[in-house]
Amino acid sequence: MKFLARKLAVASLALGLAVPAFADPSLLNVSYDVARDFYKDYNPLFQKHWKAKTGENIELKQSHAGSTKQVRAVADGLEADVVTMNQATDVDFLAERGLVAADYAKRYPTNASPYTSTMVFIVRKGNPKALKDWNDLAKSGVQVILPHPKNTGNGRYSYLAAWGYALRQPGGSDASAREFVGKLLKNAPLFAAGGRDATTTFMQRRIGDVLVTFESEAELIAREFGRGEFEVVYPSLSILTEFPVAIVEKVVEKKGTRKQAQAYLEYLWSKDGQENAAQNYLRPRDPEVLKKYAAQFPSINTFTVDEVFGGWSKASPAHFKDGGSFDQISQVK
Amino acid sequence: MNARRANAEPRWVRLTLTAVALGFLALFLGLPLVAVFVEALAAGVPAYLSALADPETQHAVLLSLVIALVVLPFNVLFGVAAAWAIARFDFRGKSLLTTLIDLPFAVSPVVAGMLFILLFGARGWFGPWLSEHDFRIIFAVPGMILATLFITFPFVARELIPLMQAQGREEEEAAVSLGASGWQMFRRVTLPNIKWGLLYGVILANARALGEFGAVSVVSGHIRGETNTLPLHVEILYNEYNAVGAFAAASVLALLALVTLVAKTIVEWRMQKETAMLQADLPPEAVRSEA
C-alpha cells in the first residue's frame, strides 16, 4: 500500500510536469537549432509588450533542434503555436500538410522573414591564400569546408550561393554554373554533417583554408574560439538567406491562441524586434535599424532564392533531390 | 595449479599485457571522463556553477530523475513477474515470451521511439482519438516515460531469470508445503533470495533510463523546461556553442554514472558473498547438483 501511494505521488509529480498551469495562455515556438539566443532575448521583450498592451501575462516556451526534425515533429503532433525556421522548405512541408496556411509567406511583411543573413567566408588569420571571392574558392590547391549540400540548410545555401554567383558572371549559364560549382565542390575534402560540425572541422581540427557559413555564425564563432583566430571575408555577391515564420493554424484553432500567436510574430517586425535581430547579428529588415547597426553589417550584393531559382519549390528538386544537379556533379567527382 | 600456470609466462609478457590493458582503459575510459570535467571547468568554477544553476539545466536533471523514478517501479514489477513465470513454470509460448523480453535490446532505440510516434503521433493509429480527447502522450512526459520503459524493460528480467533458474524451486515448494500463502512465500523466500540480483537489475535499468538518448529524443519535442532530459540538454547546449554548459550538464551525467558504478560494485560484492555463504551452508551434493 505504501509502495502504491509512493508510486502515485511520483506519477502525479510527473503529470504536474507534463501539464502546465492553465491560468495564463502559453505559446510554444518551435524553432531551429541556433535561434535560441535570439528568442531568449526576444521573448521577454514580447512578454513586456503584451502585458502593457492587454494586461495579460503570457507564457512562452521554446523548442530548438535541427529544423527538418522540428517540422517533422510538428507534423506528428508537437503542438507548436508558431514555427520559426531557417528555410522555406521546412515551412512548405507543413503547408503541404495543411498545418500552415498555403500563403504563409504573404501573411507577414518581407516574405514572412523578419530578418535575413547571408553566406560569407571565414578564413585563417591574415587570409594566407588571399581568398576574396567565390572564384578563389574554385582554384586548385584551396580546401573549402562546408556542410553537406544535400541535407543541411547551411550547405544548400552555400551551394546555391556559388551557383548564383557563377550564373551572374559575364557569359554565365546553367552549364557554366554547373562546371563552376563542380570545381568548387572538388575542393571540399569532406562534407560536414551540419553547421556546427563544419565549424568544429575548420576551427578546432584546423582542416581547410576557408569555411562557408552564415554571417550570423561568424559572431558565434568569435565568442567560442576568440576573435583573433580568423577573418570574415565578404564575397562580391552572395545569397540572401531568409528565416520564415508562420502560425500553425490547427494548433492555434484548437488552443484558442490565434490572437497571441499573431501578435507574437508581428512584433518581430517592431523596432524592438528588429533591434534584437541586429544585436544577434541577423540583418534587420527595417532600413533605419539596419543603418544604425551599419558597422556590423557591411553592405553586400545579394540575390534571393526566389529571384535566381524561382523559389525553393523549384530549387530543391532541381539541385538537391536524388538525381538533382548535386548528385550529378558529385558523381563525376 | 591455475595460479602457477598464470605465472608461467615470462615476466615481460605479463608486464606488457598489463600495461596494454591499463593503457587501453586509461585512453578509452579515463581520458574521456577527465576531458568532460576539464571542459566543464575550462572557464573556471564560477562559470561551471552558474551553468549548473541555469533553470533549464536544473529542470533537465529533475525530469531525468522523475522519469527514472516512475520507470523503475514498473521495471521491478514486470521484471519480477516475468522472471518468476519463466524460471518457475513451463508453459506454451515460454520461449516466445523470452524472446519478447529481449526485443528492446535488439531494436535500435531510435526505431523504438518512432514506433511510439506511429502509435500515438498525430498521423498515428491512436493519434486522432488522443488529440480529440486532449490527451498528450507524444512530445510530452508520458511518451518519454513510455519510451524509457520500453528501452529499460529487459534489464531486471534478464538479471533475474538465470538467478532464479539456478536457485530452483525447492525452497519455495518447501514454504508452500509448510502452509505459507503465496504472498508469504514471495516475501520470506523468493524476495530474500533474489534481492541482490533484483537490485543489480534496477541499477542497470536506472543507468540506462538516465542516459537514454535515441528513443527519448524522437518523442520529446525538445521543449525547454518541459520535455528536455539531461542527455538531450547536453546535445542542445553543445549545438549552441555553449561548451561550458554542455560539459557541465555532461559532468552531472558522468557523476550519476559514477554513483551507479559504485552502487553496482557494492551490490556485486554482496551478491558474491551471499552466494559463497549459501554454498557453504549447503551439503556438498547440493552444490554439485546445482553446478
Per-chain topology:
The complex is a heterodimer of chains A (333) and B (291).
Chain A (H helix, E strand, L loop, with lengths): L1 H17 L7 E6 L4 H19 L4 E6 L2 H9 L6 E3 L3 H9 L7 H4 L7 E10 L9 H4 L6 E4 L5 H15 L6 H13 L4 E2 L2 H9 L6 E5 H11 L4 E4 L3 E6 L2 E3 L1 H7 L2 H9 L4 H9 L3 E2 L2 H6 L8 E3 L1 H5 L2 H9 L4 H8 L1
Parallel strand pairs in A: 1-2, 1-3, 5-6, 5-7, 9-12
Antiparallel strand pairs in A: 3-10, 4-7, 4-8, 4-9, 4-11
Chain B lengths: L1 H5 L4 H30 L4 H9 L1 H34 L5 H13 L2 H12 L6 H6 L8 H12 L1 H14 L2 H8 L4 H30 L2 H7 L9 H10 L3 H39 L2 H7 L1
Helix pairs in contact in B: 2-14, 3-14, 4-8, 4-9, 4-11, 4-13, 6-8, 6-12, 8-11, 8-12, 9-11, 10-11, 11-14, 13-14
Features:
heterodimer, A: 333 residues, alpha/beta, four-stranded mixed β-sheet, 12 strands, B: mainly alpha, disordered C terminus
What does this entry show, briefly?
Chain A has 333 residues and is of the alpha/beta class.
Task: Give an overview in words.
Chain A is an alpha/beta fold. Chain A contains 17 helices and twelve strands. In chain A, strands 4, 5, 6, 7, 8, 9, 11 and 12 form an eight-stranded mixed beta sheet that branches. In chain A, β1, α2 and β2 (59-64) form a beta-alpha-beta unit. In chain A, α3 packs parallel to α4 and α7 packs across α8. Chain A is globular. Chain A starts with a helix and ends with a helix. Chain B is mostly helical. In chain B, 81% of the residues lie in helices and 0% in strands. Chain B has helices spanning 2-6, 11-40, 45-53, 55-88, 94-106, 109-120, 127-132, 141-152, 154-167, 170-177, 182-211, 214-220, 230-239, 243-281, 284-290. In chain B, α10 packs antiparallel against α11. The longest helix of chain B is centred in the C-terminal third of the chain and has 39 residues, at 243-281. Chain B is globular. Classes of the chains: A alpha/beta (333), B mainly alpha (291). The A-B interface holds A 3, 7, 10-11, 13-15, 17-18, 20, 28, 30, 33-34, 36-37, 61-65, 70, 73, 75-79, 194, 196, 199, 220-221, 223-224, 254 and B 62-63, 66-67, 69-70, 73, 117, 120-124, 127, 131, 136, 138-142, 145, 221-226, 236, 238-241, 243.
